[in-house]
Recover the amino acids of this structure.
């Protein structure tokens, strides 16, 4: 999850020796399936984090890039409209009602029926062709 661009980042470490080291040697955070927000647990280090999000759903990727292109706590933020997979190519992204459950793998609806409170993560309502790359 990606922390909101509007959320202020506490920078308790920024003025310390460790903070100065982090500023000169930034960290890279990769979020696979970046829907929503970068992990708020990283906010104390956000000033030293180059955040890269992979979000294959085109509309969600565009929304995230727009939201995070405004000033925020991260050193830099970039979203790529790609899915990560074993090989480059085009695959199908299966998007359920609860879009946080989107996956390149097909959802097992029968299995999902055993978890009524989570069925929104199994009930696929959209299939989108997406480009995949391997790390």
């Amino acid at each position: 999850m990606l922390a909101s661009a509007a959320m202020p980042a506490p920078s308790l470490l920024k003025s310390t020796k460790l903070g100065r080291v982090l500023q000169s040697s930034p960290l890279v955070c990769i979020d696979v399936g970046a829907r929503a927000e970068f992990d708020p647990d990283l906010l104390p280090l956000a000033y030293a984090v180059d955040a890269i999000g992979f979000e294959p759903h085109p509309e969600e990727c565009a929304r995230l890039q727009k939201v995070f292109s405004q000033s925020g706590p991260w050193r830099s933020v970039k979203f790529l409209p790609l899915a990560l997979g074993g090989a480059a190519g085009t695959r199908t992204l299966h998007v359920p009602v609860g879009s946080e459950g989107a996956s390149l793998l097909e959802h097992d609806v029968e299995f999902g029926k055993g978890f009524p409170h989570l069925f929104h993560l199994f009930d696929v309502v959209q299939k989108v062709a997406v480009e995949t790359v391997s790390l």
Q: What stands out?
A: Residues 1-9 have pLDDT under 50 and may be disordered. The CA atoms of residues 2 and 37 lie 2 Å apart. The helical segments are 17-24, 58-68, 109-112.
